[in-house]
Structures are given as structure tokens and as C-alpha cells.
Amino acid sequence: MGINIDKYLTRIIGNDFYQILEDNPSFQPEIELYLESLNTSKYKNIILLDYNGSVFTVIADGNIDFNNRLVFGENFKLNSLELKKLVQNKEPISFQQDIKGFWQTYLYPILDESGNLQAILSIDFSIKNFNRISQNLSILDTLFYIFTILLSIGVFIIIIFSFMDYKRELKLKLISLELSQEINKVQELNNSLEKKVELKVREIKRSQKYFETIFNTTRDAIAVIDSQTKFLFVNKAYLNLTQLTDRELKQTTLYNLTMEEDREHTINIVGEAFRRGFYHNLKSRYVTKDNNILEISNDIVAMPDSGASFLLVTRDMTFENRLRREKEFQEQKLLQQSRLAQMGEMISMIAHQWRQPLAAIGASSAKMRIKAHLNKNSNKLTIESTEKIDSLIQHLSQTINDFRNFFKPDKIKSNISYTEMIDSVFDIVTSTISAKNITITKSLNTDDKMNIYVSEVKQVILNLLKNAEDALLDNEIENPVIKIYTYRNKNMLILEVIDNAGGIPENIIDKIFDPYFSTKKEKNGTGLGLYMSKTIIEEHCGGQLSVCNTNNEEGKGAIFKISMHKA
Q1: Rounded distance, CA 440 to CA 380, Å?
Q2: Which of 143, 279, 315, 319 has an alpha carbon within 20 to 30 A of 456's alpha carbon?
Q3: What pLDDT, in 10s, does the model give residues 147-194?
Q4: CA dist., res. 74 & res. 58, Å (int)
Q5: At what angle do helices 379-406 and 318-373 cross, to 10 degrees?
Q6: Sheet harboring 278-287: ordered strands across?
Q7: Helix (H) or strand (E) holding 559
Q8: Same fold across 218-316 and 318-408
């Protein structure tokens, strides 16, 4: 209670209570009325005292009994120990002050802004249950003053009701004041909320304009469709793509826009996208208003609502697909040119391999012919000669099969190991390379398989071996060596072709994979071998082809490294 009275007096009067009330006597009744209103069965004798350092002066007395009230400005000195403690510590204290022990006095210090004691609030309060005390007192009063109570009861009731009415009116005023303050707070809050709502609406409008600008200026065609693929919203790019007006587009569906051959696939994928909430890169074809066919790619994403609408982002892939097909066509032409160049080298190898078997066939045939002229042919000689000729013919036929299989185009990828491919390539090139006094060795340390286009990768290995052979011969290396080394590094399968031909000059090593770049132009080099090798390994098979120089025990040279993912 002391804190509430302190706040009330500070708000109504401010600081320097005594001086203000002395200057404004009209405030005194209001303050005493306020203190009087706080009297209850538990609290009574509420007095406000001013303290100037030595003397206490009455400011206001809230005693219900007007005859016993202290007069404003009445001075007196108090020497009680409790008051001295209060003045010294500036903390609230209480002490028993009636001999029956029913009441205690509570002293509450009121401090100014500087923390100095400017007034003391004195309140008497009951420390026992007031109803029980009232009953006991009533019994005692009845015994001593029964006749007096009977005579004065009527007057007492009137006074009580009058006081209750007065107190009710005072409370109504206080409630009205508090209600007015709360209404003001609610009004302020309402004004604040209106401003916040207004700012939020402006922010939403700015965001709406921002997204509308993005929606209508993006190069991608964007639309919102419902679960029946009917167009709900479209941007300008979609109108330009389909050559339809906004009204025409909203009257059709994605199904109707799609080319008839693609409709079944499209509707199945759209259904899957609706179930999953998204689908990426749905490829189909649109028929425009002018009957042009567009190759398009759709991304479908569920909108953040109940799943009833979906965002459709459409990209026109017609031009890109045309460029891709042209690029693939050019690559096929380059690959064919590279194959033709390799075929020339293969024919040279076959001719070299055939020379000795054909000579042996010719020798056997001549021997049989001479014996026949001399009439010295025998069954044994004929059988031996024909068996030898048959064996040589089978070897020649196998050479033809190897050549045909080597250049047979792959349509699907197959699982194969480096060991299998190298053995196949060695059957073709070993004799030719060895005939040129080049030592060729292999160290095969992995039989793990990879999923690749086998014939194309064989051509790459053959090309790397032929390049190493040419470099060794061109540089006239004294002890020429070609090494093939395979191994596994984590999930990658590695093949290295190593030579000791002196290495690749640093000023061209970054260019050797460029198309039409060749160091063998005087020998009619096409400059396509390494370019197509890199294209096959990296774009067709998803691997990597790289080169670096090395310096090993055989001398300086180059290392071409193929890296493939393990199947």
C-alpha cells in the first residue's frame, strides 16, 4: 500500500509535498479524502507527515473520525527509536503500538528524486483477523453499551450507508479514471496497429510489383496451372512462346498445347509431378498458333497452397537442341575422319602383318609347284603344305576380324576392363611396333570393369600408342620404350601410356587437344586424333584424359593418363 500511495502522491503533487499543499490549500481535502478512502477493517489512521530534518509536520490525516484528525501544519517532535531508525536507514519499518497487540504501526519513507527523505507515511494495520476481533469487541460492547447501541443503531446505519455511498462514488471515479487511461492506451495501440498495417500493406504492394516485374520480364516462360493443367496465370514470355493471347491461353490446357504424339507421356509425367510435388526437365513439344513445333523443357513445382495449383517454368530448347544436334553431327564427322586416319594406319599394320604369312604361303605354293613339275610330290608333302597354308589363311582371316571389330561403331555401353582392351589392341600393334625396335611393355594391376563405349576407347588407346611410336621414331631415341600401366585409385580406374621420346614442349602442351592442332603436318597429320580422343573419354564416357611430361629411368618423356569411373 505504501508504494501505491507514494506513486499516487508523486503523480498528483510531485516533490516538496508540504510547500505545494501550503501554496494550494484546495489540494488538501482531496489528499485527505484519498487517504480516508483507504481505511478498511485492516488499515486505519493513515497520516502523511513532512520531515525537515528535526521536526515532523502534518500534511494530511485520513482518520475517519474528523474530530481526531491532526491539523495541517501542526508540528511536533517524535523521539521514538523506530522513527530514528526510519530517518537513518530510509527503509519501511513497523512496530506494535497498542497494548492489546491487535494493531501495529507501519512507517513508510517517501523519498525525493535525490533519495532524500521528504515525508513519512504512517499506517495502523491489524495483525489479527478483523472479523474475530470485531465479534469479540461487539460482545464486549454489547455487555457495556447495549442500551447505547440500541439507541444509536439507526444513526449508525445511516452513517454507514452514507459512507459506503461516498466510498462507492470515489471508487467509481477512480475506476472511471483508470478506464479512461486504458481507453487512451487502447486508442494509442489501435493507432499504432493502423500504422503498422498500413506499412505492411505498402510493403506487400511493393513486393507484389517487384515480383510482377520479375514475372513479366524474365526470359523463361512462367505460368501457374491447376490440377487439370488449365492455365491460371501466365507471363509475357509464355504469350510470346505460344503466340497466343492471355485470354486464349487461359482457355486452353497444357495437354492441348502439347503435340499429339507427346500427350500421353506428358500427362503421365504431370500426374507424377502432382503426386511428388515437383518434376524437373519434362521434355515435350508444343504446337504454336502458327503450327510451328517447339522443343521445350518444363519444370513443375507445387505452389505453397493446398496443392491445387502448380508453377510451370517452360524453356524453349528448339535452338539449343538444333545446336546440340549440329555439334553431335560435327563430332561424328570428326570421329569419322579420325577413324579414317586410323584405318589408314591400321591398313599399314595389316599389310605389315600379312607380308610374312603371304610370303610363307607363296613359298609353300612354289615348293608344291616345283615338286609337281619334277613329279616328286608326295601325299605327305601336300598335306603338310596345305595345312601350313590353312593355318596362315586363318591368321590372315583373324587379322581381318580384328580390324572389322575394332572399327565397328558402338551403340550401347558395355562393361569391360583395361586388361581386355589392351590385350585386344596388342594383338594388332605389337608386331608393328616391335618391328621398329621399340620395346613395349605392360603392367596391368587392375581387372575392375568400367561402363564405356568399348570400340571408341580402344581407338583412343591405339591412337596414344601410335603417337608414342611416331614421337620415338621422329626423335630417333636410342633405346625407345613404351610402357602401359594400369591401376586403381579409390573409385577411379587409371591407364597410363608412358614413353621416353623427350616430352612435349611446354609452349604447345596446352594446345595438343585442340582440333586440327598437329605436330605432324609434314606427315599429313590431321590434328584430330587427340581432340577426338579427349571427346570420346570425357564427353562420351564421362572420364578424363590428361597429359604431362615426366623424367624416369628411361629418360624424359610424356605420360597420357586416362581416368575412368569404376562400374
Answers
A1: 40
A2: 319
A3: 677 777 777 787 887 888 888 888 888 888 888 888 888 888 878 887
A4: 5
A5: 170
A6: 231-234, 221-226, 309-316, 293-302, 278-287
A7: strand 555-565
A8: no
Q: How far apart are CA 47 and CA 515, in angstroms?
A: 108
- pLDDT tens track for 17-44: 777 777 777 777 888 787 778 777 777 7
DSSP state of 307: S
Tens of pLDDT, residues 307-316? 578 888 888 8
Please tell us whether the domain made up of 218-316 is placed in CATH 3.40.50.970: no
Q: How far apart are CA 393 and CA 2, in angstroms?
A: 126
What phi and psi values does residue 333 have, to the nearest 5 degrees? -65, -45
DSSP state of 527: S
What angle is formed at CA 484 by the lines to CA 480 and CA 487, rounded to 5 degrees?
Answer: 150
Selected from 3.90.70.10, 3.40.50.720, 3.30.450.40, 1.10.357.10, the CATH number assigned to the domain covering 2-128 reads 3.30.450.40
C-alpha cell at 223: 505460368
Pick from 444, 458, 452, 457: nearest CA to 415: 452
Q: What is the CATH number of domain 413-567?
A: 3.30.565.10
520, 566 contact by CB (below 8 A): no
Residue 534 phi, psi dihedral angles, 5° rounding: -65, -40
Residue among 320, 314, 288 nearest 300 (CA): 314
Beta strands in 254-328 (DSSP E): 278-287, 293-302, 309-316
In total, the chain counts a number of residues equal to 567
Domain boundaries, the chain: 2-128, 218-316, 318-408, 413-567
Nearest to 410 by CA among 443, 452, 376, 379: 452
The CATH number corresponding to 318-408 among 1.10.287, 1.10.150, 1.10.20, 3.30.1360 equals 1.10.287
Cα torsion angle, 184, 185, 188, 190, sign: negative
User: Rounded to two decimals, what is the model's pTM?
Assistant: 0.41
Residue 461 neighbours by CB distance under 10 Å: 22
Cell numbers 510489383: residue: 209
In one-letter notation, the amino acid at residue 134 is: S
DSSP 8-state assignment for residue 308: S
Under 8 Å between Cβ of 564 and 450? yes
- The single-letter DSSP state of residue 523 is G
Alpha carbon distance 459, 536 (integer Å): 9
470 with 504: CB under 8 angstroms?
no
Instruction: Provide the CA 184 distance to its chain's centre, in angstroms.
Output: 47
Instruction: Give the integer Cα–Cα distance in Å for 344 and 133.
Output: 129
